[in-house]
């Protein structure tokens, strides 16, 4: 593929935020881009073809991949971006709610990845970029279940990369920090809230809103995805933005006890 035609890219969750910015950045870089949304969305005016897909539904995912292949015959890049959030104490969510979160954030990644892998193997090349989070590396109070999904995606992606290299396919992770999107407006609340957590949960939500408001532009994450997509020898992880990079370094080099105290202080919890 030359620079003017880098191949076919498929971006899940591309109707808004990071996904939309990523689709546009890939299109500008030279990819033919297909984006997905759960509901019918307009597309095409900026060169991006939007298709409907529910990543929690096997048939919907299969139909998506069939549509792309029918039109292009190939898929060179998959960006698994579709995801949802959940803010609350770990015991405030029922098992059913936790399963629903994992069904989107983890099993959604598995479904779409499994659907495109036969094509990538037959091509002898391909790249998969999974949008994780800095919470895939560190804990976060009142984000236990969400952080768990991202830790799961991290472990899955690392192992998968080792399995697929012999087929010419590479897997990379992009780890954003706080990003200025509507993510916090659409975040899920616990389905069995407990009064004992109300005050701190409210504080955590206020902190999150402030952090998102002052966070990175979605385009910062999008450009990181483009970098990972075009690297001849991709790294396993790419942090997106200044804060994410700082947190990764601190997690790696600061003693565990000191990191723990800092995290609790930043979260407004007793040290």
UniProtKB/TrEMBL annotation:
Q: Which Pfam families match?
A: adh_short
Keyword annotations for this protein, in alphabetical order, are: Oxidoreductase
Q: What is this protein called?
A: Oxidoreductase
Q: Which Gene3D superfamilies match?
A: NAD(P)-binding Rossmann-like Domain (3.40.50.720)
Q: Which InterPro entries match?
A: KR_dom, NAD(P)-bd_dom_sf, SDR_fam, SDR_oxidoreductase
Give the superkingdom in one word: Bacteria
Family classification: Belongs to the short-chain dehydrogenases/reductases (SDR) family.
Under SMART domains, the record lists:
PKS_KR
Domain Ketoreductase intervals? 7-199
Coiled-coil segments, which residues?
Answer: none
Record's keyword annotation contains Oxidoreductase: yes
């Amino acid at each position: 593929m030359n620079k003017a035609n880098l191949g076919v890219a498929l971006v899940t969750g591309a109707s808004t935020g990071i996904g939309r910015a990523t689709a546009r950045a890939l299109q500008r870089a030279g990819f033919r881009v297909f984006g997905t949304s759960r509901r019918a969305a307009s597309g095409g005016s900026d060169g991006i073809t939007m298709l409907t897909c529910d990543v929690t539904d096997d048939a919907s995912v299969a139909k998506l991949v069939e549509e792309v292949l029918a039109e292009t015959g190939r898929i060179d890049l998959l960006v698994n971006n579709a995801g949802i959030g959940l803010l609350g104490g770990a015991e405030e969510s029922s098992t059913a709610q936790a399963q629903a979160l994992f069904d989107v954030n983890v099993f959604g990644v598995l479904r779409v990845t499994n659907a495109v892998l036969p094509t990538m193997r037959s091509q002898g090349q391909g790249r998969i970029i999974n949008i994780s989070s800095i919470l895939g590396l560190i804990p976060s109070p009142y984000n236990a279940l969400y952080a768990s999904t991202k830790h799961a995606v991290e472990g899955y992606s690392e192992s998968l990369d080792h399995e697929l290299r012999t087929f010419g396919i590479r897997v990379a992770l992009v780890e954003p920090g706080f990003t200025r999107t509507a993510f916090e407006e659409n975040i899920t609340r616990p389905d069995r809230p407990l009064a004992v957590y109300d005050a701190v949960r409210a504080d955590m939500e206020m902190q999150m809103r402030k952090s998102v408001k002052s966070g990175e532009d979605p385009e910062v994450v999008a450009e990181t995805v483009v970098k990972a997509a075009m690297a001849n020898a991709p790294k396993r992880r790419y942090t997106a933005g200044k804060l994410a990079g700082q947190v990764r370094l601190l997690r790696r080099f600061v003693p565990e006890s000191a990191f723990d105290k800092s995290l609790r202080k930043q979260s407004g919890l007793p040290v």
